[in-house]
Amino acid sequence: MSETRSCDVLIAGAGPAGLATALYLLKARPELRGRVVALEKHAHPRFKTCAGGLIPKTILALNELEIALDIPYVTVTRSSARTVVGDALVERDEPVGTVVRRDEFDALLARSARDAGLRIVEHCRVAGVEQSNGCVRARTDTGDFEASVLVGADGSGSIVRRAVFGNGKETIGRALMTDLPADPNKDVEFAERCYRFDFRCVAAGIKGYAWSFPCSIGGRPHLNVGIYDQFPRKCRDSGGEQAAMLRELVRAFPELPLAGLSDRKISFKAYPIRWFDPGDRYVKGRVILAGDAAGVDPLMGEGISCAFEHGKLAAAAIGRLLDGDPRALADYDRELHWGAIGWKLRKLAFAARHFYGPYHRTFFRLSRISRRAQEIGLDWYNGASHSDELSTAVLIARWVRSVLLPPPVR
Ligand SMILES: Cc1cc2nc3c(=O)[nH]c(=O)nc-3n(C[C@H](O)[C@H](O)[C@H](O)COP(=O)(O)OP(=O)(O)OC[C@H]3O[C@@H](n4cnc5c(N)ncnc54)[C@H](O)[C@@H]3O)c2cc1C
């Protein structure tokens, strides 16, 4: 029988949530160098089904962690949205998005975390979790690991979540995507540095949107094209969940060569995204959840910025726990429900209910009333200058002012 390896902090999963937890923790407490261990079932660089769109909030986190984005990326300054009641375009002077490839991005985070003192045990799959006497034990296919706290950052299908919190209500959306070679002179995503979103699939029963992002794969321009559905099981009930998503994706971008998707002549990847449910708990004993394992943005399925937000809060809570503060982990749970990230995800859950609900036309119409209001909404969503941390009252006041008052003369 293999011996149990012990450390101070165990992290299940070395994706953005697990690595952000380690990076924030080791930045604040360099003395933990070598005592924080991440268990990862794959090895970096590893493929991850994801469009790789980083909102400005994530770039702020990278700056805070002093990580230079020295991998290939494409930035966009415009965001266009097609809806059943018309189109909208928001343009900013600064990037509204930075598109990376997740294998390269996650490998960069892993490198930075290793440099800071994280031990990553690769090809190590967590199979179960047990707790006793203030100690957590992770069972893996290469033996047991023990620590005084465990972060479940093992993604949407989290084993830690299932082992410790039970199956519970499943709040899992699905996204599928493919990559197409692009012509940077012709395709608007490159020519106009634009993210394209298409919400017309909502009218066909898909609670989500299709997207097309410019990206760089192996130094060559590509489009990452995909579709997100917050409630894929509903589609499955009425027959052919994936077929309906593929049909709507082709319909959203008729000018793109997507016709071969339905018969798999063009390959695509599908993957679940767990979204935030305020009824969930994120702490049990010495085990806490972060990132997709906890649940991310229900409206857009954006999860990388949430992974960094959760990681930062988890690191602060773990630091306090190691100092002997018995309230530390309970406060983490409260932050995820009621702190800035909890409020943001609640608002996005509210928006998802309405934009993807029976009165979606009314809500899409309302959102198109004022261009300035759209800009405020986008800046809030993007967390540019931490505007996502503004109170609801301030946001509503800004929104009302932007709708009722004419724009200032420059
Ligand atoms: C098609 C698609 C497009 C998306 N596009 C975007 C986007 O443009 N922008 C955005 O912000 N978000 C996007 N998302 C969501 C984003 O990918 C996730 O929210 C994000 O990856 C969450 O990070 P995480 O660290 O919590 O989980 P993950 O990135 O899933 O990382 C979890 C890690 O844990 C490891 N792991 C899993 N199980 C075990 C185990 N049992 N033992 C050990 N290790 C384990 C995995 O190998 C992985 O490395 C998209 C998702 C999909 C499906």
CATH superfamily of the domain at 5-48 and 101-169 and 276-345: FAD/NAD(P)-binding domain
Question: What compounds are bound to the protein?
Answer: flavin-adenine dinucleotide
Per CATH, which architecture of the domain at 5-48 and 101-169 and 276-345? Answer: 3-Layer(bba) Sandwich
Residue fraction in strands: 15-25%
Provide the low-confidence segments as ranges: none
Order of strands side by side in the largest beta sheet? 7-6-15-16-17-14-18
CATH topology of the domain at 5-48 and 101-169 and 276-345: FAD/NAD(P)-binding domain
**C-alpha termini separation:** 74 Å
Biggest sheet architecture: 7 strands, mixed
Name the assembly state: single chain
CA-atom Rg in angstroms: 21 Å
Shape type: globular
- What's the average pLDDT? 93
Treating each run of at least 4 consecutive H or I residues as one helix, how many helices? 13
Short account of what is shown:
This protein is α/β, with parallel strands linked by helices and 410 residues long. It has 13 helices and 20 strands. Among the domains are: 5-48 and 101-169 and 276-345, FAD/NAD(P)-binding domain (3-Layer(bba) Sandwich); 369-404, no CATH class.
